[in-house]
Amino acid sequence: MKVLKFGGTSVGKPERMHSVAQLITADNDQKIVVLSALSGTTNALVEISQSLSEGKKAQAKQQIDKLESHYRTFCDQLVKQEAGRASAKAIIDEHFEFLNIILKISFNEALNKDILAQGELLSTRLFCVSLEEAGISAVLLPALDFMSIDEYEEPEIPKIKIKLGNLISQHKGEKLFITQGYICRNARGEVDNLKRGGSDYSASLIGAAIQADEIQIWTDIDGMHNNDPRVVKKTFPIEQLSFDEAAELAYFGAKILHPASIWPAQHFNIPVKLLNTMQPEAKGTIITELPNGNGAKAIAAKDGIIAIKIKSSRMLLAYGFLRKIFEVFEKYRTPIDMITTSEVAVSLTIDSEAHLDQILKELQPFGTVELDHHQTIVSIVGNEVAATPSIITKLFDAMEGIPLRMISYGGSRHNISILVNGQFKEKTLQVLNKGLFGLE
Ligand code: ADP
Ligand code: ASP
Ligand code: MG
Asked: Best substitution site from 195, 236, 256, 272 to test ligand 1's pocket, by max atoms within 8 Å of Cβ?
């Protein structure tokens, strides 16, 4: 069985949804198709939620109406026959009635998650109506019936495996299953999600749970490029990546993949393909356990980084100092991405503000604590990249004139990371594209 995930742009227009229907019926293999919300929908739902949280009900109402009218127009083109149109209308009525009801009740975090879930619920239901109109047999598997996270927001693969297995076994002989990406249930049984871009993660978790033959991530670009195409003019697709390389790129900001989406596939050794819905014949990128080639393959950038420097004369000759510092971050379940040390100071980075106040308070006794917001980690990723002698020279040459806040070299064989102030992100990606790949 294969898992095929289609992102927001891949289902964002009626004709794109029709193309997806063609792609998934091109062969007779059994598949689970994971869909995102139509492009723009989750952003719109975030805005609606934001308005409601600020008590701006009239504004929320306007935003809901605008979204509803988008869906009505979408469905006019998606389905043509009377039966299909009636089904689509009933689905839109139901979800927008829900959004209109929440205008009347008091806002809370659980409701926020319910609001955010509407996008994937709508896209999958409407897609099924369109499949039905085309005479294609498919079964909708509700993600809320099998996808779950624990109290620490970690996915529960063994539980997902059992629940999903049970659901699939109820439909013997069925070739096509459709489900929602992104949404799940949390430890309290409430509707929750896998964070923005989480449909990739859903696909990988589903792939792991069913031990799929392959996971395909269908998007709007022909695979992982060597640099961020939104920032740098000339980029090219990479044909092959190892799990380690892809995981580093995803974690360090390559938007094409959710940061955590590689580990489930890697853990169960399931190949992942990144493919382009707009250009299905393009090779895309294949991600397997095999390392391939040496040196820099791609550059990614992760924004919104906070650098924390702890300076203390007591660090001098004091063993156990780093452990005590790390324990603070462990206590608040806040991962550290980069770290550098000297005799009297340690600098490290985190990507979340969630427990910053508590962390800072607990770090105070260790020395002077300095904070820098709006930093960006730029990672150069590739097999044995840190052992490729020329790279570090090229990197420093290219970076001339751009202040480097931190550098992490040798921590992983696949990654060299630098920290720059966010204002230098674009420049850094551009000069490294020239310095490492000769592209301007
Ligand atoms: P989807 O909606 O299909 O999940 P995303 O917008 O999340 O698609 O991811 C695809 C986008 O990621 C591309 O359109 C591209 O602009 C962006 N992107 C950023 N870095 C890279 C990269 N290194 N390679 C390919 N795409 C990238
Ligand atoms: N719809 C969700 C988002 O926009 C999940 C996804 O597209 O992967 O973040
Ligand atoms: Mg995405």
From this structure: 256
